[in-house]
Amino acid sequence: MRRVLVAGNWKMHKTPSEARVWFAELRRLLPPLQSEAAVLPAFPILPAAKEVLAETQVGYGAQDVSAHKEGAYTGEVSARMLADLGCRYAIVGHSERRRYHGETDALVAEKAKRLLEEGITPILCVGEPLEVRERGEAVPYTLRQLLGSLEGVEPNAPERLVIAYEPVWAIGTGKNATPEDAEAMHQEIRKALAERYGEAFASRVRVLYGGSVNPKNFADLLSMPNVDGGLVGGASLELESFLALLRIAG
Ligand SMILES: O=C[C@H](O)COP(=O)(O)O
Prior knowledge:
Layout: E1 5-9, H1 16-29, E2 36-40, H2 46-53, E3 58-62, H3 79-84, E4 89-92, H4 95-100, H5 105-117, E5 121-126, H6 130-134, H7 138-149, E6 162-165, H8 179-197, H9 199-202, E7 206-210, H10 218-222, E8 229-232, H11 239-249
Helix pairs in contact: 1-2, 5-7, 7-8
The site of glyceraldehyde-3-phosphate (G3H) has 14 residues, from strand 8.
Catalytic activity: D-glyceraldehyde 3-phosphate = dihydroxyacetone phosphate
Pathway: Carbohydrate degradation; glycolysis; D-glyceraldehyde 3-phosphate from glycerone phosphate: step 1/1; Carbohydrate biosynthesis; gluconeogenesis
Binding site for substrate: 9-11, 172, 212, 233-234
């Protein structure tokens, strides 16, 4: 019922020329997919994604978006620009944005609204830092972040919202959450979504896990009933490991 999504967050890696070669190779080697694949490169790479991936099964999208619709906002990129480039998804609220750019839940919610206005699905990231987990407060912390970041966000269909649980301590560290810990948090997230949007809606929203996902641990994570895919950083950069993740997802 929920189609598995494997989304590669390239962060600030690859140039447009490097990406173009990578996309062409992906296109050539792509197996038939039951699951859904997406790549989320840096803004300057999106035109290459549009050119090379547009007619394929692979979706693409951005890593961020402006909270403003249009205007004198130097350096910002609007949801309308992303829609024009054919973006299906955009990440909002990644912990690196929250941490290095001081993004608040309220700002993340505004960004998610701008995306929905343009028919782009937000991949909304939440997750606790290590000290919060060690204090035993991971669940309330993550749910507070989730509900704060969804304030006023009204997707018109459950497919129009994707949540990514990314514990900060697991990102880029090689230490993924155990499948059981991920599942426990995903259940809590789905419960909170049910209270926010109703049971039927919540049961169809995809909740991805992110944080040191790789071809060795992905099958176990995916075997959990509430883990609907992965938001993958490092392991999405090499074509071989991205393809391995897609084969595991089926
Ligand atoms: O958005 C992706 C995450 O930050 C995970 O990154 P990682 O797979 O390199 O740990």
